[in-house]
Amino acid sequence: FVERATAVLELLEQLHQTTGRAHGHLSLSSFWRTPDGRWWMLDAATRAAPDPRFANPDDDPTDPRSDLYALAALLYAVATGALPFGTGEGAPVAHRLLRPPESAALPGPVAEVLRTALQKSPHHRFSSARRMIAAFQQALAALDGVAPDPREAPERVPGGWRVGGPEPTLEPAPPRAR
Predict the structure, then answer these.
(1) Count of CB atoms within 10 A of residue 119's CB?
(2) What is the pTM of this model?
(3) CA trace torsion 133, 138, 142, 143 (10° rounding)
(4) What is the pLDDT of residue 130?
């Protein structure tokens, strides 16, 4: 699963660097699954509207972080068989209020990578596909019992905050008044 995700992320990283734009419309129809299980991206050079099931409605489709959100939603759907924020009328705005539910189909460290990529605000997500690949590599290492090296850690929104505390954020604290 992570190997396939990493292959797509490497392609997205190359797309982002060479074209200077995001894919912008990832969906299940963007990929072909080969008999050996690999995924081939079919529509990297085409332009289309974002798929509302996988795109954050508040995102700029030209921002590469919108691709990371869409890919994380796709990966969650492929692994669990359900969309990360459900279906129905409220699904397009549910990402503003909810976190993707826990699933036995995804190990904790891998689910945390997807949760970071599915953050509501783009500046809370990974800044690049390369950073998301590094997070997946650390998740696999954590599953093998290897402690992550903090010097190599990609940005992550902390998951364990105080119950009832403020929502986790990477934004700096506001200036204090004297």
Answers:
(1) 22
(2) 0.76
(3) 20
(4) 93
pLDDT along the chain (178 residues), means of 10: 92 90 87 86 79 83 90 91 69 54 80 90 90 92 80 57 51 69
Give me the DSSP letters along the chain.
Answer: -HHHHHHHHHHHHHHHHHHSS------GGGEEE-TTS-EEES-TT---PPPTTTS-TTS-TTSHHHHHHHHHHHHHHHHHSS-TT-SSTTHHHHTTT-PPPP-TTS-HHHHHHHHHHT-SSGGGS-SSHHHHHHHHHHHHHHHTTPPPPGGGPPP---S-PPTTSPPP--SPPPPPP-
Q: Helix 64-80 to helix 2-19 angle, to the nearest 10 degrees?
A: 160
Exposure of 49 by Cβ count < 10 A (0-12 exposed, 13-18 middle, 19+ buried)? exposed
What confidence score (pLDDT) does residue 163 get?
Answer: 42
State both tokens at 143.
């599953």
> Closest Cα to residue 6, out of 43, 39, 46?
39
**At residue 69, what is the residue type?**
Y
